[in-house]
rhamnogalacturonan endolyase (Prunus dulcis), 564 residues
Amino acid sequence: MSSQRVKLDIQDHHVVMDNGILQVTLSKPDGIVTRIQYNGIDNLLEVLNEEVNRGYWDLVWSEAGSVGTTGTFYVIKGTKFEVIVESDEQVEVSFTRKWNPSQKGKLVPLNIDKRFIMLRNSSGFYSYAIYDHLKEWPPFNLPQTRIVFKLRKEKFQYMAIADNRQRHMPLPDDRLQERSKVLDVPEAVLLVNPIEPEFKGEVDDKYEYSSENQNLRVHGWICMDPPVGFWQITPSDEFRSGGPLKQNLTSHVGPTCLAMFLSAHYSGEDLVLKLKPDEPWKKVFGPVFIYLNSVTSNANDDPSPLWEDAKSQMMTEVQKWPYDFPASSEFPPSDQRGNVSGRIQVRDRYVSEDCIPGKGAYVGLAPPGDAGSFQRDCKGYQFWTRADEYGYYSIKNIREGQYNLYAWVPGFIGDYRYDAAINITAGCVIDVGELVYEPPRDGPTLWEIGIPDRSAAEFYVPDPNPNYINKLYVNHPDRFRQYGLWERYADLYPDQDLIYTIGTSDYAKDWFFAQVTRKKDDDTYEGTTWQIKFQLDNVNQSRNLQTSNLPRYSEYRRITDSDK
């Protein structure tokens, strides 16, 4: 650790933050990270790229009324540089760009303030941004915004996302046309002539490395010589969209390291932020921490010391949240936030006469809406936790504002919403007491397929086509991430669709993990209709089977007595 004070060097076209451990250079006034010096490496970022294509904030936007999840890609460049804090202990700099009506249709109608922070004795730097849309400005759509870092390909070739999701990675050159074959989606390629032969025959696809928000705390890249790690740490989900199970991109071949804040990946247009006429909107994304680490020697090229240290640093950052050092008043510290606690139970008269503790329930505060609407929310903030085995929970450090409390309990279908709005004020401590969730049902359960836990992990996940594999996911718990599994359904059911017989079939072997289309010989697709066969002693011919209470998730189907 260095005891050097934090220095700020303001040059004609660049700004350099230096704390004796690392130096970070940003373009002025654009606010693009052009250089990161650390542990004897002159620049961790890809020097072959132009400066604007190394470390940057970006977004995708479109005009109001546009459909779909695409739009205009824009690397956010500031037009004004300002020093916010400059002391021995901390430097915080700002790069802002203002919108005005003359830019209508040309630039996204947002005021954006990008911030970068370096602290004394800290092996990294922080970044956050404030997006502000005024009421009188034109509405627009925002499908995506994120931070991107592109590292040096000759140095960073080992990627780590989780304890069991890390590997030596192909080079970006392996994805070039002469070395690969593009598959059904442009992001997925088959490596046919890679520089390193070990990757021949593998599929490279950035979506194979996605992760749920709840598990997406730290990921990054490792350089073996010298042994250096580059990590993106996100200590809180409060500024992410879609709730704790929303999947987001992480790191991928480039080597690229992402901090995703808003995206429609895996969700579609429901998670495109759409502002209406006369609708103001402001949101703070971040701060996130870019952490750098190293070890003195690594004779066996063992990545585990760097990965374990990165996980430890992630926990340190989580415990420090919300940070007390960002200078913007738009980021409230802990004493300007509130807390909510309570207990959730389940009342299901067909399971138990007594209330059942909501063991492991997901409980969260999100903007007001219908039950389950948090999954589509992308404008506000969300705060989530898990209940203990008795259903007790506590949500801390909630931003001021009005929220609904949402929940779901693994093992029970449906979504819960507490009817009363919850108003959070600075320093408030709210105990909502005991809440009781009654899952939808019309009678006793006669049969069910799978487990209502919002995961399809218990179902049959086929082996991938041996011509299209990612070696990481062979015999792996996340083998569902293998490329092309949707086409395996047609291999299993070439002529007729899946038929599942209650009492005979086994959902671990006989229930395909996703309901997909069937690819035909002429490369077109047709819809599929699955059948569930079951025996009933008595059938009420005057009634139709009611399925309105069934959840959307593929893991669970049920029928009740009143549906006979």
Remarks:
- The chain is about 5% helix and 35% strand.
- The longest strand covers residues 281-294.
- The helical segments are 304-320, 485-492, 507-510.
- The CA atoms of residues 343 and 368 lie 20 Å apart.
